[in-house]
Amino acid sequence: MVQLTYFSELSWLSVLLIVGILLYIISYKTKISNIFLLLLAGIVAGRFVDFSPSFMAGFATFALIMIIFDSTSKFKLKEIETYYGPSIKLTLTFLFFTVIALTVFIFFLFNFSFTLESLLLALIFSSLMVGTSPDVILSSLKETKTRVIEVLKFESILNTPLSVLAPLIFLQIYQGGFDPSSTTISFIQNVATGIGLGLVLGFIIFRVMRRSYLEEISPLVVVATALLSYTLAEAIGGNGVLAVTTLGVVYGAMVIKQKENISKFVDIFTTFLKIVTFILIGLVIALPTSLTFFIKSLILFALYLLIRFAAIEIAFLKTDLTRKEKVFMSLQVSKGVAVAVVTLILTSFAIEGMSLIINLSLLFILYSIVLTSLMSLVSGYFVKNTERKIESIKKPKNNSKSKK
Fold first, then answer.
1. CB within 8 Å of 241: residues ≥ 6 apart
2. Structurally, how many domains does the chain consist of?
3. Residue 47 included in any domain
4. Residue 32 sits in a domain of what CATH number?
5. What is the per-residue pLDDT across 104-140, written as a single tens digit (0 to 9) for each?
6. For 314-373, how does the pLDDT look when each residue is reduced to its tens digit (9 = 90+)?
């Protein structure tokens, strides 16, 4: 493996981008998950090249900013009206069950010592696994229009900021030690500053963009504002991820000139970051060769799916969702670029036990992508396509039987 210089890093980045674009084309033609192909390409490339930690950390942070902004900017009032309740309920229920149950399972399966440091490492992993990104299955179901698909899409928008913010908060606590009083005050200030800065920047800059549009400048203003919100928030003691999250929500809600064109540019730019990020995540992480570890990771993943199913059962206990729909939703746990980026960021921290968390995260990304890819082949058994207007999830009538 060759340690790259600055120039060779840029050269290899160009090569990886071209490879990634080719894999995207292959994925489109063959219906194989593009994320899966990108990860495999990264694992293969990792045998020949090694990027510097500073380059990896910088690129991962940049990707994180744009991915969070792109995700949160997609909130739509019509979707919120119909799916806000069910998606919020599912997101919070899944968060609660995952953080508690998955943390407990990690302790017992991997023999964690009962210390605060071990607890925080387990919480970093379990909170990271809250994130879902059903892009893999949805790319194969573009013509399928059901309430289940819509809830899954909206859930992924809601839990993406959570799956990024929570692990980084636990990491921050790990690095700074744990003092309940100072940590609580610092946490409140951190959150308030991040949200406040995102709101202020969003209302000032996007309000100006309501009146004028410059084809070559306006999209760059949006990207620059997202970067500014993160760096400025971190500089003044706020949470950069929350600042970008708030900025994205403000952008999604405001009326801006030629917003569709700007959003297309942001999407293309974010796609570039996704391609490189998934290759890098496969490139930098060396999987352990221990068979015991793989068996334990599969057991943990199976338990994770049971946690997901339990959360869905409770979240939609008194609704007209069928058992097939609930099973389908339970198996849609594909991990997207947000989880990959946080995993990439974690590789830059020399913390005892962090390698286990990183390797588990990568395996969960692979397991979830393979699972959702397989589910796309039998999706017709679980969800039916409908051309009529998608109805919201509701309570079944007392005098009628639930549809199977």
1. 64, 68, 161, 164, 165, 168, 194, 230
2. 1
3. yes
4. 1.20.1530.20
5. 999 999 988 888 889 999 999 999 999 887 555 555 5
6. 988 887 788 888 888 898 888 877 788 788 888 888 888 898 898 899 889 888 888 877
